[in-house]
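Quick one before lunch.
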Amino acid sequence: MEQEHGAHGPSVDELREKYRQEQQKRLRPEGMAQWGELSEELDRDPFVEPGFTRDPVVEETTVVIVGGGFAGMLTAIHLAKHGITDVRIVEKAGDFGGTWYWNRYPGCMCDVESYVYLPLLEETGFMPTEHYASAPEIFEYSKLLARTFDLYPRALFQTDVTGADWDAEARRWQVTTSRGDRLSAKFFVLAGGILHKAKLPGIPGIDAFEGKAFHTSRWDYGYTGGSPTEPMDQLADKRVAIIGTGATAVQVVPQVARSAKELYVFQRTPGAVGVRNQQPTDVEWFQGQQPGWQHERIVNFTQAVTGAQPEVDMVGDGWTEVMWVDTQKGAASAEEAAELERIDFEVMETIRARIDEVVEDPETAERLKPYWGKHCKRVCFHDDYLPAFNRPNVHLVDTEGRGVEAITRDGLVFDGVEYPVDLLIYASGFEVTTDLYHRLGFDPKGRDGVALSQRWAEGAHTLHGVLASGFPNMLLISLVQGGFGTNFSHLLSESAKHVARIVEACIDQGIVVIEPEEAAEEEWLALLLGVGMGNARYFQTCTPSFYNSEQQAIDSRAVRNLTYTGSLLEYVGYLERWRDEPEFPGVTVQRADAGEHG
Ligand code: NDP
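Model of the NDP complex:
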């Protein structure tokens, strides 16, 4: 039966059909295989001086952490609070900060409120200058965290881990690096980053382009001029193309639009862009906060964006408004399912209506409209993206789901038309659901020399996404069988706390080897599947994205690599209850002076 959506808007049935058509346009048989990798040249770190050398480090420590982003830093900080400072952090970049080290593109910021995003504000005493912190401010804050908690002496920068082997006799991980280091550690923490490995679209001819090209996470200010805070004066005579319209492109487009002679935005799927409403920090409000305020606000925000509907919406921004009702959850009745669908359509209609209000050319406005459910892809919040399309030098090239067809020596091709450009910017995102060892860049070898790639050949085996059978004393912080959240820093903070608590408990209790039992891992998987089934129906209707591995057919492997798709707070609850048990359930441990026990 046809249900009315609104007085003048499309009906629910019409919208459902429109979503289906838009999804069908975008389904690709190649699924995840459509993506390629950055060449060594494009992946090079543009933010360090070439030629760095140092002597190899040979040492034994309690912990080696891979990754100096928030996850790795917070793990080290939690350990230090417990007196464990015998920690080595290995980081590929030239400094701490992770994603905020790499992403220096103009306009880069975090669209999650700074008071809930920046970890440990009460400990550092730092006051963000604005509601939504800029990338330079977050990068500076990362360095402040590192200084405050004395992490610099423990870091090995510009260093890639090349191998890690479990040494059963020594009951240690033996870790090697690209700088010849030999690090031996009781515990090995993999905090290699969630959006760490940049990817490129596999467009035919991509290597033929002879102009300048880079990925947004390797911005070359030497070419564009300017800096994250200054205009890009060298683009004034340049024709620029951007591939992508995700969260990154939404922030980059307005900046390039201001500087470039011509800007061509190649769109495959329109992004959803809600109101951001940037404001300076209210100093009086910030300084009047009582101890414990930040954790309370973080939890409140996560409740608000996961449909828990707290009594007070403390953050009260676009995120909490759009995500207030969890419309992806399994409904208890047909009536509830219809109600959730109606709410989802309504939220997205508001986002679409805003485009008509802001974008002057009706055809461009229509082409910018996203027709997908609000949980299908990441919703963005920005006030300058849509107005950029009113500028005469900005051209939307809507590929209607097909994508750029080819790249030539001189430019990009769509629909038989070549668009010659001087600069090609890939705002094409990062690997998220590819194999963990691929993203890490090395393949840990666990018990009996079995590599992670072998053990996980048919998908992951973990307890909570943190401990993995066959890999004693290895602790993971990733999305694989772990949690997920709008506020990534909340997820990483809780994961880091959990990892640190496990290490602390082992040391306090004389546990020298800890490893999950396979039965406990299977139980965890069953739980993940149970939760995942609830919203599988919703995701079937979605347009492809990294949220659903480009909608490629789900095999048993993909099933095992699932993320906990319920609320982040529920996931945190599982971790906390497990930690609160007198003996960690579902793990086998060895104590220094005794045998094994289950
Ligand atoms: P995304 O993966 O979200 O976007 C990649 C874009 O490239 C998509 O628009 C995709 O289209 C497009 N694309 C791929 N192939 C082609 C092609 N052949 N032709 C044209 N377009 C193509 O990457 P982002 O870097 O934008 O965002 C990644 C994540 O980073 C976000 O989801 C978010 O988690 C994080 N982020 C967070 C920010 C914040 O403020 N907190 C800011 C920026 C990023 P299609 O949609 O059709 O696949």
